[in-house]
Amino acid sequence: MVQIIAGEKGEGKTKRLIEMANSAGKESNGHVVFIDDDNRHMYDLHYGIRFVDTSSFILGDHKIFLGFISGILSQDRDIEKIFIDGLNHIVEKISMDEFVNFVKMLNKLSIQECVDFIMIISIEKGLLPAEISEYLI
Fold first, then answer.
1. N or C: which end of the chain has fewer CB within 10 A?
2. Separation of CA 32 from chain center
3. What whole-number distance in Å separates Cα of residue 72 and Cα of residue 79?
4. Is 114 left (phi over 0), alpha (psi -120 to 50) or beta?
5. H helix or E strand, kind and range, residue 53
6. Beta-ladder partners of 40
7. Which residues of 76-108 are buried (b: 16+ CB within 10 A; e: fewer)?
8. Contacts of 70 (CB under 8 A, 6+ apart)
9. Could you give the angle at the alpha carbon of 52 between the alpha carbons of 96 and 63, nearest 5°?
10. What is the value of pTM for the model shown?
């Protein structure tokens, strides 16, 4: 399953994502991963959540980031949920068409690997393509 939290800056998206991750970290039977573009929220997370800071990696486009996620999954078959804070901060450039493609590829990966993905994109919900509406929470 893929879920997307969309909205403009300052709407509390990251706070909501951290609360969701902490809840999953306490209740999950498997592992939980939180991917962020810096380590600012590392200490806000439950101690059992694996935190990944992407700032030292070159993730120029959505395909490279998908490979990055696949690498994380290949190292740990017990991952149940991956939280992604600020996709458009992690991936340097992503157009709406690329975003739709990324979500579709992520959904296939989710089904294949039995992993839930919950992510944030900083954009007004009304500006997202219709293909994304089924993933919005």
1. C
2. 11
3. 9
4. left
5. strand 50-53
6. none
7. eeebebbbbbbbeebbeebeeeebebbbebbee
8. 109
9. 35
10. 0.94
What does the pLDDT profile of the chain (137 residues) look like in tens digits?
Answer: 999 999 998 899 999 999 999 999 999 999 999 999 999 989 999 999 999 999 999 998 999 999 999 999 999 999 999 999 989 889 878 889 999 999 999 999 999 999 999 999 999 999 999 999 999 99
127 torsion bin: left (phi>0), alpha (psi -120 to 50), beta (else): alpha
Cα–Cα dist 41/10, whole Å? 15
Cα distances from 136 to residues 44, 63, 120, 128, in angstroms, run 24, 21, 10, 10
R_g of the chain computed on alpha carbons: 14
> Which residue is listed with tokens 């980031």?
65
Distance spanning both ends of the chain, measured CA to CA:
12
**Helical segments of the chain, H only:** 13-27, 62-75, 87-90, 96-113
Measured CA to CA, the distance from residue 137 to residue 135 in angstroms comes to 7
